[in-house]
């Protein structure tokens, strides 16, 4: 009994232990399942939270068209309630447009049947959102067969960002293209180096400068713009710019298009690690600077030569330049000006020298002048009246750099001239009104502008008519009644128009009805007007008539005298011929032998007859009207030889030296050979007669293309001024030449008459003790 009890107790204990172990195991499994359930719940909550807050939301479309949508997708689609079927995603005013809904239905159907995924973008009308839909076939284990998972994501902000970025990218692209075009079109070489300082881009100007065929060739061959290679050459500044991040500049030589140039090379570091560079040709800049400097020097030299004073102040208001007239006008010393005094000090020094206008408040006056620097517009000017009586025109001109140029023009002379001009105008007006002549000034349009009292009273014009400044035609019409011939009044208008329009001086003469004679004249004035004058010449006309009558009487008397002399000359030829014939018979012994003294007397008679015959011939030549008869080509060298042969006897008798100098340029002239020969012969006889024994006479002939010149000179005692004045006067007291004296005969007047008949001129030059020279000039 005890044994069963023990066995039973053991079995009971074992069962109890098993129950306890099973309970513990069940508890363990329950606790573990509970933990896993809790983890799954948390993970589901976390996934749900992530899914609900994620950028994409999932919707399930079942095989029968039913759809399960999260609330966020409903909000994105702008629907008032969650739809049950796919076809309910779009209404007339909400959800998807019908076209998008049809496309979505077709894509879902394709995914259900063929498992084809799709992606599309739609716009929700109600919410105005752009949604991206990605559709894939749902796993059959998770969902009902034929289901499709639609992932909706709101792409509105992304699309806006894409649009913005696209526009920004377009702007950057256009800016880059513009910048690239600008660089390409730049006239200066430009380039870009990479981090290793190797050329990566060059423009056309660079290619032309290094004489490469194209940009790629220049980059591949590493053609550098300037001389040198390596880090010590053109890459030195680029390396410094890359390493320091600071722009670098250097002036380096280069050979461009075969010419040696100086370039200013700039290297600029870029954020990418590369270096951009460009080169500026500074040769022209230096030349321009040199030209500007020379221009400034020339300008200052020119300003020194001006009569106006010029002073230039810099932006700091110090005197940087002044010319000589400025120093002279204001009495400023060169040593003081070298310190570049300030504007106020210059004014104060001018005031000390009493070269400024007298003002009560000088500080205020000086402050007003300082505003010249601040006044932007030009065209200001002032007039200063100095205590010394000097009048200055002051013109300040502000400069763009803040400086100032002041021009001081001395107008003292102009002011004095203006005052004198006013006085002259008053004097002219008084003189104008009191002249004996009648004067009127007509404008360019023919209207009377100014007149004097003589003009009004002479024509009898009314003051009212003249005050209206009538035209010249109206005046001529009113003046016609005053003239002897009224039609002559039109001449007034013709003269005025000729002076105003044609700018010609013209005159005329009219007779008034009362018998008075007036001379008209119209003179163009510098201002375009015309001055019309009238002078009473009645008395002069009468004197002129009397003189004309007397002149006609004198001319008639001269003709009678000339005819008388000609007749007497012809009458003298008959007794002279008889005397010469009988004297020759006596000298030849036809009347018997005569003594030696008788022979001498006969020779003396013959010489006197020859001289008297020559004198008669000269008188006849003077009385003849035509001094140049037959005309032809005259050889001046032959003419000179004939004239010399005619006087050879006289030259030999006096023991003179006769020199003849005929140049090859003498040539020929057109004229009367006999008259021209006589002219030269008369000059030679005049020279021989006035030259003492042992003297010298010269005949010189030369010429040009337009005229010939004949010169006869001697070394005789010369002639007095009175003798020179009447040498060519045929009515002077002509006598016979004596030995050692020069008497005036008819030779010189005859020579003058013959030469002038040929269109030539004759001139005599002589002084006592200096000989005599006579020159004939004949046109070809």
UniProtKB/TrEMBL annotation:
<dbReference type="InterPro" id="IPR005467">
    <property type="entry name" value="His_kinase_dom"/>
</dbReference>
<dbReference type="InterPro" id="IPR003661">
    <property type="entry name" value="HisK_dim/P_dom"/>
</dbReference>
<protein>
    <recommendedName>
        <fullName>histidine kinase</fullName>
        <ecNumber>2.7.13.3</ecNumber>
    </recommendedName>
</protein>
<dbReference type="InterPro" id="IPR004358">
    <property type="entry name" value="Sig_transdc_His_kin-like_C"/>
</dbReference>
<feature type="domain" description="Histidine kinase">
    <location>
        <begin position="567"/>
        <end position="780"/>
    </location>
</feature>
<dbReference type="InterPro" id="IPR036097">
    <property type="entry name" value="HisK_dim/P_sf"/>
</dbReference>
<keyword id="KW-0808">Transferase</keyword>
<dbReference type="Pfam" id="PF02518">
    <property type="entry name" value="HATPase_c"/>
</dbReference>
<dbReference type="InterPro" id="IPR000014">
    <property type="entry name" value="PAS"/>
</dbReference>
<dbReference type="Pfam" id="PF12860">
    <property type="entry name" value="PAS_7"/>
</dbReference>
<dbReference type="InterPro" id="IPR050736">
    <property type="entry name" value="Sensor_HK_Regulatory"/>
</dbReference>
<dbReference type="InterPro" id="IPR036890">
    <property type="entry name" value="HATPase_C_sf"/>
</dbReference>
<keyword id="KW-0418">Kinase</keyword>
<dbReference type="Pfam" id="PF00512">
    <property type="entry name" value="HisKA"/>
</dbReference>
<dbReference type="InterPro" id="IPR003594">
    <property type="entry name" value="HATPase_dom"/>
</dbReference>
<keyword id="KW-0902">Two-component regulatory system</keyword>
<keyword id="KW-0597">Phosphoprotein</keyword>
<dbReference type="InterPro" id="IPR035965">
    <property type="entry name" value="PAS-like_dom_sf"/>
</dbReference>
């Amino acid at each position: 009994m005890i044994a069963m009890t023990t066995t039973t107790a053991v079995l009971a204990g074992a069962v109890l232990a098993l129950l306890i172990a099973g309970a513990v195991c069940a508890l363990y499994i329950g606790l573990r399942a509970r933990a896993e359930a809790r983890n799954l719940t948390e993970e589901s909550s976390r996934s749900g939270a992530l899914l609900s807050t994620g950028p994409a939301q999932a919707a399930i479309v079942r095989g029968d068209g039913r759809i399960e949508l999260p609330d966020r997708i409903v909000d994105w689609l702008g629907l008032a309630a969650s739809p049950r079927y796919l076809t309910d995603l779009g209404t007339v005013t909400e959800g998807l447009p019908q076209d998008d809904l049809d496309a979505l239905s077709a894509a879902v159907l394709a995914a259900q049947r063929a498992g084809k995924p799709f992606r599309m973008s739609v716009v929700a009308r109600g919410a105005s959102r752009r949604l991206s839909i990605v559709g894939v076939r749902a796993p059959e284990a998770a969902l009902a067969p034929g289901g499709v998972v639609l992932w909706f994501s709101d792409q509105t902000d992304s699309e806006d960002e894409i649009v913005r970025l696209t526009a920004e990218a377009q702007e950057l692209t256009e800016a880059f293209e513009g910048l690239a075009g600008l660089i390409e079109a730049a006239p200066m070489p430009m380039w870009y180096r990479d981090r290793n300082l190797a050329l990566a881009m060059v423009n056309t100007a660079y290619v032309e400068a290094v004489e490469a065929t194209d940009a790629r060739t220049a980059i591949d061959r590493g053609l550098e713009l300037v001389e040198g290679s390596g880090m010590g050459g053109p890459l030195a500044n680029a390396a410094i710019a890359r390493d320091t991040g600071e722009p670098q500049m250097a002036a380096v030589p280069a050979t461009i298009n075969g010419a040696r140039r100086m370039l200013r090379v700039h290297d600029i570091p870029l954020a990418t690690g590369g270096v951009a560079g460009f080169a500026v040709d500074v040769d022209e800049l230096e030349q321009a600077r040199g030209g500007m400097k020379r221009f400034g020097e020339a300008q200052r030299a020119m300003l020194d030569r001006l009569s106006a004073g010029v002073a230039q102040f810099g932006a700091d208001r110090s005197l940087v330049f002044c010319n000589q007239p400025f120093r002279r006008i204001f009495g400023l010393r060169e040593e003081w000006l070298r310190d570049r005094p300030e504007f106020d000090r210059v004014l104060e020094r001018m005031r000390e020298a009493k070269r400024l206008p007298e003002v009560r408040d000088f500080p205020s006056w000086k402050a007003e002048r300082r505003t010249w620097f601040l006044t932007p517009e030009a065209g200001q000017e002032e007039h200063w009246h100095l205590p010394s009586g000097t009048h200055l025109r002051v013109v300040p001109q502000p400069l763009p750099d803040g400086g100032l140029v002041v021009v001081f023009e001395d107008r003292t002379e102009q002011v004095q001239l203006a005052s004198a001009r006013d006085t002259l105008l008053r004097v002219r007006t008084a003189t104008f009104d009191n002249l004996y002549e009648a004067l009127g000034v007509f404008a360019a349009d023919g209207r009377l502008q100014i007149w004097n009292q003589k003009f009004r009273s002479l024509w009898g014009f009314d003051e009212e008519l003249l005050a209206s400044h009538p035209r010249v035609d109206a005046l001529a019409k009113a003046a016609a009644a005053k003239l002897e011939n009224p039609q002559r009044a039109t001449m007034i208008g013709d003269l005025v128009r000729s002076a105003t329009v044609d700018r010609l001086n013209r005159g005329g003469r009219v007779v008034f009805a009362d018998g008075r004679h007036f001379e008209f004249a119209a003179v163009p004035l510098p201002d375009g007007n015309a001055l019309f004058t009238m002078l009473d010449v009645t008395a002069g006309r009468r004197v002129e008539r009397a003189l004309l009558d007397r002149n006609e009487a004198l001319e008639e008397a001269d003709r009678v005298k000339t005819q008388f002399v000609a007749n007497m000359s012809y009458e003298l030829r008959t007794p002279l011929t008889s005397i010469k014939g009988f004297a020759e018979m006596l000298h030849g012994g036809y009347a018997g032998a005569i003594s030696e003294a008788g022979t001498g007397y006969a020779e003396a008679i013959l010489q006197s007859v020859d001289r008297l015959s020559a004198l008669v011939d000269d008188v006849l030549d003077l009385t003849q009207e035509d001094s140049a008869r037959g005309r032809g080509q005259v050889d001046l060298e032959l003419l000179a030889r004939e004239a010399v042969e005619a006087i050879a006897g006289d030259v030999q008798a006096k023991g003179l030296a006769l020199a003849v100098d005929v140049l090859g340029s003498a040539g020929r002239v057109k004229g009367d050979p006999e008259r021209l020969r006589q002219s030269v012969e008369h000059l030679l006889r005049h020279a021989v007669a006035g030259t003492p024994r042992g003297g010298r006479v010269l005949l010189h002939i030369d010429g040009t293309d337009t005229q010939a010149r004949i010169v006869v000179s001697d070394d005789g005692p010369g002639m007095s001024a009175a003798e020179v004045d009447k040498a060519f006067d045929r009515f002077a007291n002509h006598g016979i030449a004596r030995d050692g004296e020069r008497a005036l005969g008819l030779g010189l007047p005859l020579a003058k008459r013959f030469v002038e008949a040929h269109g030539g001129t004759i001139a005599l030059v002589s002084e006592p003790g200096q000989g005599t020279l006579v020159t004939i000039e004949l046109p070809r």
